Amino acid sequence: MADTGAAALLATWEAGLTEAPAGRALLLHGTARPDLDATALPAVPLGEREGDLLALRRALFGERMQVRLDCRACGADMEFELDAGEFARSLDRPARQVVRLTEDGWDIAFRLPAAADLTAAARAADPRTALLARCLVSAAHDGAPRTAGSLPPAVQRRIAEAVEAADPGADITLNVGCPECATTTRAELDIASYLWTELDSWARDTLLDVHLLATAYGWSEPEILALSPLRRRYYLELCADV
């Protein structure tokens, strides 16, 4: 885990303000994985990245995650809590980056998609075909080489199933029963967006603290950020009492 002190986190937040969601996810992943070079981050399999971001979220904001969804049937506002620790343990990280499929004369090797693959495929006219072409390592039928565009739909479905089984953490899905109508709502949990929302709220609160303490005591931002959250809160209470 990288330096998650207040100053470093504020720098990450500031850098992400002008970024699209994909850029913010990359910044957060870099904070979670300082052991990886910046050029290597986009190539990390999606399930591994989601696990890294969940670990960062737990380190910064604890084990409890508040989630809100609208029921897809009756529109009721559903609010519930997730245990981030239990949730993390339920996500298996990929054991390998290349999946092999051998059946019915087919011999296929397929690399697990990463963030860079999704970003590039999204710009294509046919994102699904583009993703398949990017991640297909090799394909042959009865010994004859085949290209991504020549794979039958049934084979493409089997590849998708094999990838999902090999990297279940790439698609974090919640199934929530509505207390009003008992309908189950299925929704994806985008941990990068969830974490960014929390970081944005924390950063704005922290900068307000800096403003108040700097006004009251004349301290610099680095001096204020060097205080522990508890001491910072105590000084803010003293300011309110004056």
Automatic annotation (TrEMBL):
Source superkingdom: Bacteria
InterPro entries named in the record: Baseplate_phage_T4-like
Pfam family, one: T4_baseplate
Protein name: Phage baseplate protein
Source organism per UniProt: Streptomyces lavenduligriseus
